[in-house]
Amino acid sequence: MERYFKPISMEQFEEMINPIIEDDEFPHEMPEVMENDISHLYFNFENYEYSEYDSLDTYPCGPRTLPNGMPCLFVNAGGDWEQAICFIIYFDGAELRGYIPTKGNVWNRNAKCAFGSEGEMGGEYTGQETLCQAYERLLQEAKSWLPEDTFTKIAKELQVQKNVQPDHFSFYAMLDLFISEKAIIEDIVENIKERA
């Protein structure tokens, strides 16, 4: 599906988004089109952040204007049992829309859900190895822009963690610092084009 945004000022965007996020039911209730836009991935809204001063994991959070001129709101969400995900809300020229970037987001691609919620999808928990594979994928996505020495260091450390201590999350949090934000923004800029 082709996605487009209409360039507007951050002030105009905030005038549109503020009534939605200031509603006590946000993010549990959003406009139907936004819910539909993010419904292809199962995750929980038990914990959520949309302030530029907070985030879950190391994902970008809060209102931003991206390098392509698109204002958007980064939202992080996930249950206590889940690896949080990041999505955005943006204006397509007609209405506010939602989008979940693939790059930089860590979620179970097979079960189409946040890590930790595989059981909610009727499948078995796929285990930590799948999470390691997700981080390997993120690292490969970042290979084109990470400095070579940083890439090599992270790749070696990831291999050690995978073989020795695959359930050790502190290293994965370090990986997020290098990969998530830049990859997420890159994904958005690649996939949501300015409306002509």
Features:
single chain, 196 residues, alpha+beta, 5-stranded antiparallel sheet, two-stranded parallel sheet, 5 helices, 38% helix
What would a concise description of this structure say?
With 196 residues, the protein is α+β, with helices and mostly antiparallel strands.
Give the helix/strand layout:
Blueprint: E1 3-5, H1 10-21, H2 32-38, E2 47-49, E3 62-65, E4 71-78, E5 85-91, E6 96-99, H3 128-142, H4 148-164, H5 169-191, E7 192-194
Parallel strand pairs: 1-7
Antiparallel strand pairs: 2-4, 3-4, 4-5, 5-6
What does this structure look like?
- It contains 5 helices and 7 strands, in the order βααβββββαααβ.
- It is of the alpha+beta class and 196 residues long.
- It has one domain.
- A hairpin with a 5-residue loop joins strand 3 and strand 4.
- Helix 3 (128-142) packs antiparallel against helix 4 and helix 3 crosses helix 5.
- The relative contact order is 0.17.
- The model has no long low-confidence stretch (mean pLDDT 83).
State the secondary-structure class. Answer: alpha+beta
- How would the global form be characterised? globular
Please state the average pLDDT score: 83
First CA to last CA: what distance? 17 Å
In terms of DSSP E residues, the strand content is 15-25%
Contiguous uncertain segments of 5+ residues: none
* Oligomeric nature of the chains: single chain
Radius of gyration: 17 Å
Assign a percent range to the helix content: 25-40%
Number of helices: 5
Order of secondary-structure elements: EHHEEEEEHHHE
User: Based on DSSP secondary structure assignment, what is the total number of beta strands?
Assistant: 7
Give the domain tally: 1
Question: How many strands, what sense, and barrel or not for the largest sheet?
Answer: 5 strands, antiparallel
